[in-house]
Write a structure and sequence with these properties.
The chain is α+β, with helices and mostly antiparallel strands and about 210 residues long. Helices cover about 55% and strands about 10% of the residues. The chain has helices spanning about 15-25, 40-50, 70-80, 95-110, 125-150, 160-170, 175-180, 185-195, 195-205; strands at about 5-10, 30, 55-60, 65. The chain is globular, with a radius of gyration of 17 Å. Pfam families: GST_N_2. This is GST-like protein.
Length: about 210
């Protein structure tokens, strides 16, 4: 194998990695699957990643990587010219690491744990209230990101993979309209990514924007 294979699903976190691959100029093949649907695609995914989640990345040497932040940091090392992350000597590096991990450890799981409340055996009459509560908490979490965000990129004038996360995750609940009303700086960052010809086609394909 001489290229990466990215296993992803429409509208999911794998879109961040697809965008990062484009920015890096990495040679890759996208295998888009409905990762939650039982069948041979999910069976193969589970063999590669016991959690059955996307993104799952098969490396050129056949090894497997999971966890989007880990993949981003790998790509940043493998393709330094892409500037997916500030250099280790850059004063922005600590802030980048802090907010990268914040996005994937604090905000991202609110989708994992609330998209399908029935999964957690919540009573039917409690599921809508649970989703509303989590959505409000998610807005609070995004508010902290808005407070520290710069523009035109999250780190000011310097692009980083955090901009890609914002451009993708703003499409998730509570939705683009509410996101734009609540978080103007993050919306500007996301719009800058969405309007970049390198990324626009992927975002349109995944989110019908």
């Amino acid at each position: 194998m001489s290229k990466y294979v990215l296993i992803g699903s429409k509208g999911c976190g794998s879109v961040v990695i697809e965008l990062a691959m484009l920015k890096a100029g990495a040679e890759f093949e996208l295998e888009e699957i409905p990762y939650l649907e039982p069948g041979p695609d999910r069976d193969r995914l589970l063999e590669l990643n016991p959690l059955g989640q996307v993104p799952t990345l098969i490396m050129p040497d056949g090894d497997v990587m999971t966890e989007s932040a880990a993949i981003i940091l790998h790509l940043a090392d493998a393709f330094p010219d892409a500037k997916l992350a500030p250099a280790t000597s850059d004063r922005q590096r600590p802030a980048f690491l802090r907010w990268l991990i914040y996005l994937v450890s604090e905000i991202y799981p609110t989708s994992t744990f609330s998209d399908d409340p029935a999964r957690w055996q919540l009573p039917k009459d409690a599921q809508d209230g649970y989703k509303r509560t989590v959505d409000q908490y998610r807005k609070t979490l995004w508010g902290h990101v808005e407070d520290v965000a710069d523009t035109p990129c999250f780190l000011g004038n310097d692009f980083s993979a955090i901009d890609l996360y914002i451009a993708v995750m703003r499409n998730w609940r509570p939705g683009r309209k509410e996101f734009s009303q609540s978080f103007p700086k993050l919306t500007e960052i996301a719009d800058n990514i969405a309007n970049d010809p390198m990324f626009s086609g992927v975002l349109k394909r995944n989110f019908d924007t």
